[in-house]
Amino acid sequence: MTGFLLRRLGGAVFVLLSLTVVLYAVFYVAPGDVAQIACGPRCSPAQVAQVTAQLRLDDPVYTQYLHFLQGIVAGRDFSTGTGVEHCSAPCLGVSYQSDQQVMRLILTKLPVTGSLVIGAFALWILLGVGTGVLSAWRRGRITERLLTWLTLAGTATPVFVIGLLLIIIFCSTLQWLPSPTYVPFTENPEQWAWGLLLPWVSLALIESAKYARLTRSSMLETLAEDHVRTFRAYGVSERGIIGRHALRGALAPVIALSALDFGTMFGGAVLTESLFGIPGIGRELVHAVKVVDLPVVVGMVLVTGFFVVLANAVADMLYALADRRVVLS
Amino acid sequence: MTTPLVQVEDLTIDFGTVRAVDRLSFTLEAGAALGVVGESGSGKSASASALLGLHRGTGARVTGTVRVAGTDVGAADDAELRRLRGAKAAMVFQDPLSSLDPYYTVGDQIAEVYRVHNSVSRRAARARAVEVLDRVGIPDAARRARSRPHEFSGGMRQRALIAMALACEPRLIVADEPTTALDVTVQAQILDLLHDLRRETGMGLLLVTHDVGVAAESVDDVLVMQHGRAVERGPVAEVLGAPRQPYTRELLASVPRVDEKRAGVPGPRTATEAGPLIEAVGLRREFGRGAGRVTAVDGVSLTVHAGETLGIVGESGSGKTTLGRMLVRLIDPTAGRLRYGGTDIGSLPERELRPFRRELQMVFQDPVASLNPRRSIGESVADPLRAAGETDEARIRDRVRELLERVGLDAGRYERHPHEFSGGQRQRIGIARVLAAEPKLIVCDEPVSALDVTTQAQVISLLAELQRELGIGLVFIAHDLAVVRQVSDRVAVMRQGRIVEQGVADDVYGSPRDPYTRQLLAAVPALDPVRAAARRAARRELAAA
Questions:
Q1: Are residues B6 and B77 in the same domain?
Q2: Do B52 and A233 touch (CB under 8 A)?
Q3: Is the pLDDT assigned to residue A41 strictly greater than 80?
Q4: Same domain, B146 and B293
Q5: Which of B99, B119, B161 to mutate to test the interface with A (most CBs of A within 10 A)?
Q6: Any chain B CB within 8 A of the CB of A227?
Q7: Which terminal CB of chain B, N or C, has fewer other CB atoms within 10 Å?
Q8: Can you give the residue range of the structural domain that contains A212?
Q9: Is the pLDDT of residue B267 over 50?
Q10: Which residues cross the membrane (chain A) (predicted)?
């Protein structure tokens, strides 16, 4: 177990470092004058040169990268134009745009995206697996065909369509809900939940369709296996077979997929965040890419990568827990 | 007059347009044992499933009446049927690994079944599970009940399935090929167990098997099926001793006998003075690293001469397949020498090995998996010719036709695909493909174990014929002792990676020297029920000794 965790940790560090190398390389060859953008459209060439020097953009790209690594391990100092600011380890650098430390920026955005993702995740697993089980149970009947059609529609619908529909129905027409706004959990848990309700539901509806289809197909596969036939031949009821044997066997692919989705959602819930005005990581990342704010992009991508790797390790452990034939090594 | 335990009248089962069972009628008295024997596709398994109403909801069409322990299976509602299943009639399935849920412990699975039919606490059900596991001979049952199926050996899993069947004390056990996936010594143990249980509990047994010997060992009456119909039914000694129907006679004649000498094969045999074709000295193969290291083949020495057949027999895990693959260098030996025609090919790099490749060929067990389903069989057979550099299309075609005819197939079916052929025909195609390479040595790994006995007999005689005619050396690997005796000049018995006994076939079978060989031979089911009883007694003595 300890060996497994250590090896996973090593793997994670390697993956994340590779990510940063790729990002630096991509930004180096990408078009756009970073200093000009950072300084603003009305800056004179002299001012741009000053910004360039201040951001140390005239260093070769590998020196910039080494400074970045140094910041993570030991922290580093930044000139703010008027003075010097220390950014302690682990330092992910300072935004080109706002002079804000990336680590602090992430720490303010993380709870926001976390609230969105964790709530939606719980909802979509419940909804998706539940629907999948129901349609496997009612296989060949009208219920299954209806659910299959609905989940297909769900997979094909973009999140902003569902989201907009929900806003129009529940906020404008029926006026059952206030327009979604983000209120931190620590400020007011009740408003936090009401504000996130629609984002959770729209994200969960889309995602659960995928899970319903996956659960259904892998349940049907398990239902065709020999050991299910054994329990049928011993008088175990259909409910016992579905609940105890088929569902258990069908969970493995669901665990694997949910780990990936959970991780990527931290950086990838862009559309939902934009639509509902949630100031999370996804929105910040898109903005940073637009203005070529390399430190922010790298920081945000690292966070997403970290969650993908973490979720996968957790999935592997769950996997071994669910199926004792799997040995963690 | 008591009603029979099982009463089947005019049972007919259709899968779509295929009639699997055709107006089958039979009865089974309480406490009696009936063997249902037939080749694949004879409808024996479909009939057994019908006893528990397992076709319900599968799309199969079942007509006729089936009454089991007072329940009309066809007319019963789902709840009634569930009360029959497991409680009054229990089924023991073939493949014990896939027939248990991999996620739960063996004890929990038996307890679950027990609780379906008895309103008892979880704890009481677990205790019952331990009790029946102990009854079927699982050592340290209380602890092993907490193991999951993958932690059990094949024989133990089969015992666990039987324990599950015993849990609710049913009046009938339906066993569908309960020993087919097992080694012969384990098979004997399971059959002995079923025999003892039946005597103790007085339950009825319906045993479905393709192996006439297994039936002879275990039942009072036997029912022979072909194409979904009952061909012959009677006391086992009568049906096997003096069969009245031509099909039964044909079936019995095809069963390879372990206690009969090999039938003479005409044709020349190359003199052995020429020296061995291939010689292995101290051949060894290890798999894995560190603590997980396993020695699959542990210092094996053998020779094969041109024109002779060396049979290699052993149980699963004995290393016979690894050895066979090393002989044709599909697997590299870890140590030891492998001399072929004056060259040590054991450690030759692939590039230098290439000239030898076509002379060393292999026939595999599964004819379905070893033919590409998307290519015509003619093209598959032509592969070795093209690999040898032949480019003249007309010559390739002629040679392939010749080969197809040589193995007894219609050359006109050149363009057909593998799925259009039966199992035996596919194995013939595999043999034709091997012959196309003009090999000097052919290693056959379980070439007939997926085939029915009548087909098996045909493929074996084809191999023998070809070998005599072409003077090739043949290595015949199989788990079936009878089959090996019927094809081999010499025999090697393998156990745990070593050859425990090697010699002329009739000597090894007639007067085995190694205790393991004796144990193996004692485990082979006898076709004669009287002898079967004697052998059962002999096995008990061997086990007690």
A1: yes
A2: yes
A3: no
A4: no
A5: B99
A6: yes
A7: N
A8: 103-322
A9: no
A10: 12-30, 116-137, 149-177, 192-209, 249-271, 291-315
